[in-house]
Specification:
514 residues; 2 domains; 5-stranded mixed β-sheet; 26 helices
Length: 514
């Protein structure tokens, strides 16, 4: 009776520790999105544009994150704070699940503190939870699946196979990378005593449930010539060509934070040293399988490992608690101090000029994951600058057109960031409809590509790139921005009239799935 009372007291204490970290996380994100928020991120504009074209699939991602965003926008609107409510919410839910995971592992107070710290202030997770994309949902669903898997390991109850199938299916409907978890799960089952479950019907029912949940996106790809496969092939071979296994692993020290990386590493390897942790090795096998897949893929971005953080760090925390009790406090203080210095790299917690001086003083380098030139800011910050000014300048050029030309005019952009930002700011500035050959915008453009517009505002490129396509072409403006990505600075804006040739053929040749 006394032991049971102590166990309940320990679990309650651990819950309060996690709730404390949740409160800290909420305060950090509130401060970041109010006091120092730079602007809406490039991909957030695009997700909002996708929400305007509700579908069961998109070129560069499955539909679940868009369906969720549609509901959120209906309830809260599409302001920066409204859009970023969801990633913070999924971040809070992820951190909350860490409590039950540590509890299932029979971790003590120190395990709760270490796991909560490692996850709550992990720079890559902070960044993913600070702007809307499928990534915050992906991390949450991986963590939820890990918790269900631990329950399955401990109880072998069929209901957890059913739950696992639903989570994997939703995860795949959100982001294809949930497939890495599924492969890791299969490997873990085959390599451990869990293989006995293959003699029952439940694992197969789980696979069927996952397939049915994911089937809408399969149907969409069949209908659209497997556009997502084309996107992944192009992105891996071109956009991410500069990535390799060395870049993948060397960046983890900063992405996870020094503190988090040590815990993650100890979770990945320490569980094979401590015999008392043997029952939970299947969870780590999922982490190892994921890492091996990313290494074999060669062009994997460093942040692709981030969903493994909340599922592996609790195991590392448990290993530290049971193995290095005497050294925990000293190591905790040293690593935590190093970690705090990395937070401004993940969240806009400093005014932009202060951040630039801060990063230069510490000699911090910005990971470049898309083979694009960087300026003084990392890409995830630079892509929050310049959009409204761009929309305003395009609007001024559009307003100079005669009314007879405005009605049929379009603005032709080079990428989905420019296109979706212009559509977002249409409620503030007079702007024409947008055409863009990048990803889903190319599909949307097909609906009106049969008839060539008479008047084009062309954003980006050089005069010689466009002059052969129009009867007349003139330069209207050069749009500048100080902190944006270099390729979005000094954008030429042209006015082209009377398109030459067949516009539909031209449009088909401009497709850019990447």
């Amino acid at each position: 009776m006394k032991n049971k009372h102590q166990q309940i007291k320990k679990e309650t204490y651990g819950l309060w520790i996690i709730l404390g970290f949740i409160l800290l996380k909420c305060l950090i994100h509130i401060l970041s999105n109010t006091a120092f928020a730079y602007s809406i991120f490039r991909d957030e504009f695009y997700y909002l544009a996708c929400a305007d074209h509700l579908d069961i699939g998109y070129v560069d991602h499955p539909p679940l994150s868009i369906w969720i965003l549609v509901v959120n926008r209906f309830l809260l609107g599409d302001s920066l704070i409204a859009v970023r409510f969801l990633p913070v919410l999924f971040g809070v839910l992820t951190l909350y699940i860490v409590g039950p995971i540590v509890r299932e592992l029979k971790g003590g107070k120190m395990a709760f503190i270490l796991a909560g710290t490692g996850i709550a202030i992990s720079p890559v997770i902070l960044a993913m939870n600070n702007f809307y994309s499928m990534n915050s949902i992906d991390i949450f669903l991986w963590t939820l699946a890990a918790w269900i898997f631990i329950k399955l390991i401990k109880t072998q109850k069929p209901k957890f196979w059913i739950s696992m199938g639903m989570i994997l299916g939703l995860g795949l409907l959100n982001k294809i990378s949930m497939g890495w978890f599924a492969i890791g799960l299969a490997v873990a089952v085959v390599l451990t005593d869990l293989r006995n479950s293959l003699k029952t019907k439940w694992p197969y029912i789980s696979v069927l449930i996952a397939f049915l949940c994911f089937s809408p996106y399969l149907i969409w790809n069949i209908q659209n010539d497997f556009a997502h496969l084309e996107f992944m092939q192009n992105a891996s071979g071109l956009k991410y060509a500069g990535m390799n296994p060395i870049v993948l692993m060397s960046n983890q020290f900063l992405l996870m934070s020094p503190f988090g990386f040590i815990l993650w590493l100890l979770g990945m390897v320490g569980i094979f040293w401590n015999k008392n942790l043997k029952p939970y090795r299947p969870v780590v096998i999922i982490g190892w399988t994921t890492m091996i897949i990313l290494i074999i893929n060669w062009n994997s971005k460093p942040e692709y490992l981030s969903p493994t953080i909340p599922m592996i760090i609790p195991l590392g925390a448990l290993f530290v608690e049971r193995t290095f009790k005497k050294w925990v406090n000293v190591c905790f203080a040293l690593l935590l101090g190093m970690t705090i210095l990395t937070i401004p790299m993940a969240l806009p917690m400093l005014p932009v000029e202060t951040y630039i001086k801060f990063s230069q003083t510490l000699g911090l380098t910005h990971p470049n994951t898309e083979s694009k030139e960087l300026n003084t800011l990392p890409q995830h910050y630079a892509d929050m600058f310049g959009w409204e000014n761009m929309a305003e300048q395009v609007s001024k050029a559009y307003e100079t057109l005669p009314d007879t030309e405005k009605a049929d005019a379009v603005v032709l952009t080079q990428n989905y960031g420019e296109a979706s930002a212009l559509e977002y700011y249409r409620k503030q500035y007079p702007l024409p409809r947008v055409l863009c050959p990048h990803n889903n915008y190319w599909l949307w453009g097909l609906k009106r590509a049969g008839k060539s517009p008479d008047t084009f505002l062309i954003l980006g490129g050089r005069f010689e790139d466009h002059v052969g396509n129009f009867e007349s072409l003139q330069t209207m403006a050069t749009i500048q921005c100080r902190y944006c990505m270099p390729y979005e600075n000094n954008l030429n804006l042209f006015l082209g009239k009377q398109f030459k040739g067949d516009f539909e053929s031209y449009w088909n040749g401009k497709k850019n799935f990447m």
